[in-house]
Amino acid sequence: MSADLVLLSARLLDPGTGLLLPHTALAAEDGRISFLGGDRDARALAGPGTTVVDLRGAVVTAGLTDGHLHPVSGAERTMGVDLSACRDLDAVRAALAGAARTLRPGDWLRGWGLDPNAFGGAPVGNAALGPVLDGIPALIDLFDAHSLLASERALELAGVDGPRAFDQGSEIVCDAGGRPTGLLLEDAACELVEAVAPRPTEAEARARTAEVLRAMAASGLTGGHAMDANGDSLAVYAALEAEEVLPLRLRVAPWCRPEADDDAVAELVRLQGTGGALWQVAGVKLFMDGTIDNGTAWLEAPDCHGQSAHAYWPDPQRYTQVIAALHHAGVPTATHAIGDAAVRHALDSVEKAQADAPGTARPVRHRIEHIETVPDDTVRRFAPLGVAASMQPTHCCEFTRADHTDNWSRRLGGERAGRAFRCRDLWEAGAKVVLGSDWPIAPYPPLEVMAGARHRRPADLSLPPHGPDQALTALQALQGMTVNAAWAAGEEQEAGLPALGHRADLTVLADDPLRVADTDLAALPVVLTVVAGRVTYRAAHL
């Protein structure tokens, strides 16, 4: 029987060791690596239907996996005007004015990627945008996707005219007179206006998601840990796979909100393992807090504004109960925990769940997402508990500054800002560090994520590194998107390495990423991307 794919004239890089394997060719059959050896023997495996690619010395490594991203919801959120490059309010106003000129009467304006640092030291609110949005229903995602800025007209259409109480850590931010400023913090508040804003059709959402996933494959991604199943996400994945145009392997973790009762938790357990050949529900996503930039994180001591003092779950012990229930059912969890108190409570909850259910047949691999500021004693707890540290280094690179003049650092103060995104400390303490982008919060190209983990600078290299002592080595950065991602998913026996019997999920680069300079890595050309033995991206010159 002939192979489905044969790669020739290759350099095979083992991300587990950082060494080049003594082979020049690879073959795949039925989605798995079936041969490693020389070109001559590999050619003999090719038949009439085999895809044969001469790589001309390019480097093949295990497929790069983004440890935290939002493909479907991100595809929808990024359909508006991109504000991510706007560094001040003048740039924001100009971008919004340009988009407003294209609208028909009554149309909504959507934007995304708004950085609160663009407001300088002023509060984030729609008044700062001046007359640009007068009479226009507008809804703008701040960069963290935990907050929205709504125009006066959007608030009016949604009937939002003052503060409200929520069953989760959400807020309609109001001025001293009780009038909404336009800033909506966390889901329950945001959903009030999102409910009246137009949504893309099913066909539009599917087409946009397909476009995003194709671009992700072209960037070298073969897989991702999708951290939501919001809206029609699962149906979109199913439809794309049925059309044979799903180019990434995706693990999907639906959300469990604070208001979830026991029946809702049981339904999340029931969903586990559902999916298709390339996508599967595997895990549950929870939120222990919000974000530092919004004042909705959970810190041991409040920030400089007296905010970030409470958990997202009104009753943190209910969160602990849910973690226990999921752990006992064998369901891995991924908890968004940014502040030191949030991370501590998440670890406490996992530790309690493990103690109450010792000796399970297969370890349940929990993980904590983001971990933006934590003290030494918390860093040391990850490895003994077997909790993966899921980190997004480009958040540090793009949204914080080494001189602590950014909003995030100012809120925390020097001491806590000085222990930012401790990738290296967590690694050296024995934690499994998984790297990701959290797209659409930060760009998804994996080489950019790995570069940020190595140099701790923004992509344009315009600023000095923030916390250079927390930079990862070249090999560690590669492992964070290969072997460690596979370990966090419990798939280390079948993924993360270019090994016989492993999945034929492969990323092919023009040169060895371990020997390319940190500052050049993001620009390293992607030559070929392969998922389950099928080419999902091929450079024009091949």
Can you put this structure into words, describing what you see?
- By secondary structure, the protein is of the alpha/beta class.
- The chain contains 19 helices and 25 strands.
- A 6-stranded mixed β-sheet has the order 3-2-7-23-24-25, with helices on one face.
- Helix 10 (340-356) links the parallel strand 19 (333-337) and strand 20.
- Helix 2 (71-77) crosses helix 6 (202-218), helix 6 crosses helix 7 and helix 17 (446-455) packs across helix 18 (474-480).
- The longest helix has 17 residues, at 202-218.
Largest sheet, if any? 6 strands, mixed
What is Rg? Answer: 23 Å
Instruction: Please provide the count of β strands.
Output: 25
Mean pLDDT metric: 96
How far apart are the termini?
26 Å
Low-confidence stretches: none
Which descriptor suits the 3D outline?
globular
DSSP helix fraction: 25-40%
Q: In terms of structural class, how would the helical and strand content be classed?
A: alpha/beta
Strand content: 15-25%
State the strand order across the main sheet: 3-2-7-23-24-25
Assembly category: single chain
Figure out the total of helices: 19
Could you write a compact summary of the structure shown?
The protein is an alpha/beta fold and about 550 residues long. It is globular.
